[in-house]
Amino acid sequence: MSLLSIIKECGGISNVVRVLNPDSRIIIEILDFDLLSSQVKQQAYNLQLKQVTYSKNVIENKDEFESQLLQVGRLIAQQQLQDITPYIKPVECEYRPDWHISPPQGLLNDPNGFIYHQGQYHLFYQWYPYACAHKDKYWAHLTSKDLINWQWQPVALTPSDWFDSHGVFSGHAVSQDDELMLFYTGNVRIDEQRDRHTTQCLATSTDGIHFTKHGPVVPELPPGVTPHCRDPKVIRHNDRWLMLLGAQREDEIGRLAIYQSEDLKTWTFLALCGDELGDFGYMWECPDFFTLNKQDFIVIGPQGIESPNKSHTVAHHNGIVKATLDESGKALLSDFQHLDYGFDFYAPQSLQTPDGRRIMTAWMGLPDEVDHPSSDNGWIHQLTTFRELSYANGKLIQTPIKELEKLRREHVVLPQDEPSFDLESKAFELKVSMEWGGALRLHQSDQGYCEIRLDKATQTLFFDRSNTLLREGDTLRELALPHSDSVQLQILSDTSSLEVFINNGEAVMSARVFTAKDATKISRAGEVDILDCWLY
Ligand code: FRU
What we know:
Elements: H1 3-9, E1 16-20, E2 25-30, H2 38-41, E3 44-46, E4 51-55, H3 62-83, E5 106-117, E6 120-128, E7 138-144, E8 151-157, E9 168-176, E10 179-190, E11 195-205, E12 212-218, E13 225-237, E14 240-249, E15 254-261, E16 268-273, E17 283-292, E18 295-303, E19 319-325, E20 331-337, E21 346-352, E22 358-364, E23 379-380, E24 382-383, E25 387-392, E26 395-400, E27 410-411, E28 420-422, E29 428-435, E30 439-445, E31 448-455, E32 460-464, E33 476-480, E34 486-494, E35 497-502, E36 507-512, E37 521-525, E38 528-535
Parallel strand pairs: 5-23
Antiparallel strand pairs: 1-2, 2-4, 3-4, 5-6, 6-7, 7-8, 9-10, 10-11, 11-12, 13-14, 14-15, 15-16, 17-18, 18-19, 19-20, 21-22, 22-24, 22-25, 25-26, 27-38, 28-37, 29-34, 29-38, 30-31, 30-37, 31-32, 32-33, 34-35, 35-36
């Protein structure tokens, strides 16, 4: 038999949801049992999963089988692209950001494949179009010339193939001449117990819009690692390519796996790194790598590490470590520091601009949270603003990208003696100088507000969103600051978010903030100087 004749017996391609290819079996998940041929109805059928199972022994021509699998994947992808068409239309919602990237419908999570290629920026994101739920992920695709105006492009990757049918998971891009290469994790679940199978896969494009999948380039797991192994970042190092992967060791300790390659196609395992950090969470997700001012850095999302303080109850952390790569490419890691001390910042990715800046964006949201007020209108989560990273005098500095100045529509002078002022908008930027003991309320209405306050006794900045419409997640963040007379803040506000850059970018706090539509007032108590205010 051939795979195509199996598909025919199963009611044709329009009756096939997915084809799975574990070990000795071929599993066809179908829509309608009645469309199966009478012969197949006798075949092993799993009623709960709606799956027909064949033994691989029925396949006569093994070489043809591989290419037929890809062919079937392309047909399923065509169907999936058609099915999502109605979900590409943005739903209206009072929480929809004015200037941040949010999904038209459904759930957005990690940014993916963030790169400058052939004269424009490409940004993909993890997307489940059909609901505010973490199910089989797609790669949505946007392009931009200026990092401000983004153009929706055809969805780049769908969960259509035997190697990624339960999610085209996160990954990065490589720009090689006129080819745009996407490395991602193919996520597959097998049988009732949903055994996880992960492989690292490649898809390429020559027009930057339409992608051809090539299947797994790393089909196996690194030695001693569980199937929690994902999110490839590919970098050039010492005349060869390295692939960094977030991984979980078999004793459930998070680590970084590294593979190497000469040609980006054939990969060999190099090392499992991170022992010098000890027991540092049960899984590390979404690595990134870059160099700032001659210092190499690796970004990781360690899950389950100790929280900086008791108001932080979330397992999912983000952070950056200094990395020392030896000749072979093995990394030594040190000096973990959070990239963001707010509520919502996870799975960041960065790119280098043509003028050499390192720009980062992240998922402004967290795993496990799927019930925000916007979910009532069928969409959830957004990406953070783009920030530029630099490193000087031992300090990591993060500042909003200069391109954002284009969004400044109107400069507003706030009356010095009025404690409260209505901006009549939630899309604005503030530059503020605050003395210890001061407090600033934002997104304020009669029903609620969000507060930033400076506690003099403990020299701690508190970011408090307990008086908002938030349904899930922590409501208080605290950050001890170095001793100073005053604290400088640059605040970027959008309809349902606040991002606070502290002391010229020495720390950042990002937050989803849901308040009433008329919560457009700002008010202050104590010594709080609004130095600049721009409406966006
Ligand atoms: C991080 C993450 C990644 C994974 C993706 C799936 O948020 O869990 O590790 O690839 O999301 O959507």
